[in-house]
Design a protein that fits this description.
By secondary structure, the chain is α+β, with helices and mostly antiparallel strands. It contains six helices and 18 strands.
Length: 370
């Protein structure tokens, strides 16, 4: 099914949803629990479907019902999820109940559309006051002659347009997927003997990092079929904010795959296996040893640095190069460290064990699906 976005119309969130503020609990005031009847505690995090913990039921607080959509008004602003189970909500969290009776597929479609607006809330901007007025572009219902159907009661918009719930459901069901399986089992992975690892200056391992050409999202067109990944500083979806039409992008500005992307103001790091373009403040890292598996290993190391770059401190190119990270090293057949006489990667001559990193990632559960 094609997404003819040009024919979609804009709706205000308050006209599509009943929006309510959550119960505003603090996690430190709750008792965490793994009991069978424990309740999900949904917060402003963008991870784990918004669930921060499971807590004991509180007799004086009503649980919020499964099927609601949760939206973070602060924190990881506009982190949006469908909640499959009853839950409690933390501070600055809103619940959205679709005014029409719709399926789970439709809710997930709407979640995606809401999430596409996250870029509007960078630099500390909150959504607490603006959420009801968030403009959502949605497919609309048509008459048999393909003219837009107009609701005389103007239930969902001042212009009388009505969201095409059935199209949303059909589109989500049309997406092809199979349950992800793995032949790798938990406990059969390679051991990480971290005590034997050595420190390396990241700049000694890589080619010189550089800033990518920045594209403004508003100047780009969402791809109908295949397109280019648009990589930004977002911390979700491998840094990909959307797929864009590649026909208007000069080839010289297209970044080739097999690279690490780093958002310098957010320190968000991801391995990019396909060609892509970027938004503002994106640094690109390349290296001769880089491949998908060892790239994911190294990205995991870089993500451990993210906590250092909060509150306006940016992960600039010089700081990226000066980052120190511990990595496994190559050994001689007798088990002693291999020493490179040219000291290419470190002053002491240690050499990162790229093959071990690759093998480790491939041995993890689902690593065989990389």
């Amino acid at each position: 099914m094609n997404l003819n976005v040009r024919e979609w119309k804009e709706f205000l969130a308050k006209d599509i949803f009943d929006i309510k503020y959550g119960v505003n609990l603090e996690l430190n005031a709750c008792e965490e629990s793994n009991d069978k009847d424990a309740v999900n505690f949904v917060s402003r995090t963008e991870d784990n479907n918004g669930v921060s913990a499971k807590v004991r039921k509180i007799d004086s607080v009503n649980v919020q019902k499964a099927g609601l959509i949760t939206v973070a008004g602060g924190g990881s602003v506009l982190s949006t999820f469908v909640q499959p189970d009853d839950f409690y909500s933390g501070r600055d969290l809103y619940t959205l109940d679709v005014k029409a009776t719709v399926s789970e597929e439709v809710k997930h479609f709407l979640v995606t559309v809401i999430t596409l607006n996250k870029y509007k809330y960078n630099y500390g901007r909150q959504a607490n006051k603006t959420l009801p007025f968030l403009e959502l572009k949605l497919p609309i219902q048509h008459n048999p002659d393909r003219t837009p159907y107009i609701d005389p009661n103007h239930t969902y918009s001042e212009d009388g347009y009505v969201p095409d719930w059935q199209f949303m459901e059909d589109y989500m069901k049309s997406l092809h997927h199979k349950p992800l399986t793995t032949k790798n089992t938990v406990g059969n992975g390679l051991a990480l003997n971290v005590d034997e690892w050595k420190e390396f200056r990241f700049g000694d391992l890589i080619d010189k990092p550089y800033k990518a050409k920045a594209f403004n999202k508003d100047d780009l067109e969402i791809a109908v079929k295949e397109g280019l990944r648009y990589i930004t500083r977002t911390g979700v979806n491998n840094g990909c904010e959307m797929i864009v039409n590649a026909s208007e992008i000069p080839q010289k500005y297209v970044e080739k795959g097999n690279a690490i992307s780093i958002g310098d103001t957010t320190a968000t790091c991801f391995y990019q296996d396909e060609d892509f373009i970027t938004g503002d403040h994106m640094v690109i890292v390349r290296a001769k040893w880089l491949n998908r598996s060892n790239g994911l290993f190294v990205v995991g190391m870089l993500q451990n640095e993210q906590y250092k770059y909060s509150y306006g401190r940016a992960f600039l190119i010089d700081r990226i190069q000066e980052t120190m990270m511990k990595l496994p090293i190559q050994h001689n057949p007798d088990g002693t460290p291999y020493i490179d006489c040219n000291c290419i990667y470190s002053e002491d001559g240690y050499v990162p064990d790229w093959q071990f990193m690759e093998d480790y990632m491939k041995a993890l559960p689902y690593g065989d699906r990389l």
